[in-house]
Amino acid sequence: MLQSTTSKSNKLIPTKKPSASATFKVRSLLIIASLCLSLVLPGCNSKLEATPLTSQTAGREFRLSKSKARNETSSTMKQIEVWKTENSAKRDQIYSEILTDPDTALAIAPTLLRSSDRKDQILALNLLRDIGSTAGASTLATTAQAANSLVLRAEAIFLINHLRAESASETLRSILNQEEEPLLMAASLYALGTIGTNQDTALFKKYLHKQGPSMEGVRIMSAVALARRGSAEGLEVLLTGSFSQRPRYQRWSIEGLGLLQNREANQRLLGILNEPDSLATGPAAAALAQHELLRHSERDQATKLATYTESQDEYLSAWAFNELIRLPLSISESGLEEIVLKRGLFALRANNVLQARRRNP
User: Fold this and answer.
1) Which residues, including other chains, have CB under 8 Å from residue 202's CB and lie 6 or more apart?
2) Torsions phi, psi of 34, nearest 5?
3) Is the dihedral of CA 129, 130, 132, 137 positive or negative?
4) 270 class by beta-carbon count within 10 Å (0-12 exposed, 13-18 middle, 19+ buried)
5) Other residues' Cβ atoms within 10 Å of the Cβ of residue 347
6) Which residues 6+ apart lie within 8 Å of 41 measured at CB?
7) Buried b vs exposed e over 68-90: b needs ≥16 C-beta within 10 Å?
8) 3-class SS of residue 280
9) CB 3.0 to 4.6 Å from 226: which of 41, 231, 304, 335, for a disulfide?
10) How does pLDDT run across 236-292, given as a tens digit for each residue?
11) Least confident of 43-52, 159-168, 184-193
């Protein structure tokens, strides 16, 4: 049984339980979230005994395996159809059941992403995120390049970043070379800041100076990518962007400031926190938390992130959970177990992630 970990208190993390309104906001931030932990998933540590195949049985075993895979896929697709018609609590349970078979979930993800039904697309993105395997990288790369929906293409790119799927880096460079759509350019720069190489720095600098109002997001994401590479060359762009009237651009800029070990960046973030009516206080709190995490090992980061998920600030808590599940399971596992045991806002999602990743390490 996991023992509770203790950590130094942080003023950004109130101990008071979140209100009902905060719960609603978290659920809107996270596509699949729930307060309910009614489903205990079986067999996460079960082991299969291997039976040697002879030349006489190999063909039969292969046919049975293909038949079983078809049956499992068919069963999962039926679950999905039910998932799309049920109420929230029932959907949470069905989603958890789908994640108990991550191999089948990975196999059907391309079909769901090609669907014209937005619910199918959202489900596929969430499955790929919670399973956390880079096995879905090629599917996401194809979606990023060829999907009919601009929004879906951008979502695929942001998920490539979340999964740190380095194999998709050439796809992102290709998009930058071929696309003129600012959202896709900005998303690709953002992801390359994570999964690219130092050779991409020249590319980031090139887009940092793109002119025109439509290129504001591109300039900001170039600065964020440079910040991830340890460069403050885009500091002025980020400081300016932190005052943007467009909430998305303001959030992106604030995130970039949190990646810089820079006095000006830190002062700007603290200034935002002192603006009680600002919608940017949550992103600023997350950026300051990110600033703090940069000083610690990944294992210590996992401990702190698990603590941040208890914050009263719904943006900070949601950000912390999504950052926690980006870490390898060997590092994030104890933090996720602690979240499950406390049965808070992210208990069900933490349980889902643990089950899926233990079955598909």
Assistant:
1) none
2) -160, 150
3) negative
4) exposed
5) 20
6) 96, 100, 351, 355
7) eeeebbeebeeebeebeeeeeee
8) coil
9) 231
10) 999 999 999 999 999 999 999 999 989 999 999 999 999 978 899 999 999 999 999
11) 43-52
pLDDT digits (tens, 9 = 90+) for 207-222: 999 999 999 999 999 9
Question: Would residue 324 count as lying in a domain?
Answer: yes
Share the mean pLDDT of the chain: 83
Residue 346 belongs to what domain range?
A: 296-361
**What would you measure as the largest C-alpha separation in the chain, in angstroms?**
74
Residue 7 lies in a domain: no
How far from the centroid of its chain's Cα atoms is residue 1's Cα?
28
Q: What's the whole-model pTM score?
A: 0.80
Q: Give the single-character DSSP code of 54.
A: P
- Residues near 121 by Cβ (< 8 Å), separated by ≥ 6? 112, 113, 115, 149, 152, 155
How many structural domains are present in the chain? 1
